[in-house]
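Why show two proteins at once? Because comparison is the fastest way to build intuition. When a single record is shown, students tend to memorize it. When two are placed side by side, the eye starts asking what differs. So, the first record is below.
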Amino acid sequence: MIFYLLIGITDFLDGFIARKYNVESVKGAKLDSIGDFFFYIILSAYLIIEHKEVIFTFLIPILLIFIFRFGNIAIGFIKYKKLIMIHTFANKLTGLLLFILPIMIILGVKEFLFIVVIVALLSPIEELIILLRSPKEKIDLNKRSIFIN
């Protein structure tokens, strides 16, 4: 649990420090997205192995989330010829909620998964809208929301 908390804190801090000291880079954002992707894979494996009874309750919405996420990656790759992961507020909120999820399940607050599933289902839908509305020439990977220009 200590390593898990350290991973989450450092993931948050690296982006915060980069923005604060104006040392953001495209490469850093891509590395962050790749790290997040592996984190989600490992977290998914952990939740399926250790808490399958809770996870299988929401199996269909979780599968839809994965379909949307991988669909967005495919659409981004087809449209822009590179891996696209947009850093929206909803995606960041999803990441935070997913990070908190195992702690809440261990504490017995299994209803928290419902909130996570709703937010995690809405965020790739927003990302899909951004992908489809963005010009083919360029996409803003730091687009915060469909509601903010």
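Second record. Ask yourself what differs from the first in the token line.
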Amino acid sequence: MTNRMAVALGCAVLAAACSPKPAAPSAPQVVAATQVEAGRYLALVGGCNDCHTPGYNQSGGTTPEADRMTGNPVGYHGPWGTAYAGNLRLLAQSMTEDGWVARMRDTKMLPPMPVQNTSKMNEADLRALYQYIRSLGPKGEPEPENLPPGVVPTAPYESMLPTIPKPAAG
């Protein structure tokens, strides 16, 4: 190998090592005609209505959109205490879009809120979800206060405690 070839090869290796790495692809995001439409879709497929809309599951998902995301007075009781699904419509009206993104990323929330999933959402999707919920306008009352472990709720709740069936008599 000649000196000229070695220099050329060395420069090529050095250039490859020093060039910036290509940017990692961004996280997938929902694309729709508008951000509100993207947020509507995310709320639907993300199951937001399952907890944050009273009677949504029991109605087979037919609760009118005007009545959705108002929080749920039925608690979710487990080892963490009792959690109540928040009134997202009032919450979105009370905070900025940036505040919403930070809350969904950084706030510790009680089960059954799937923080392990929402904290990984693309920022554009979190913003679309906020814009959709905010577009619904304020409605409803604030949710009840969460209860600590060991306190049995006096209002309706769903038990999220595992039940071990008794062996069949035989």
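One difference worth noting in the second protein: The longest strand covers residues 75-78.
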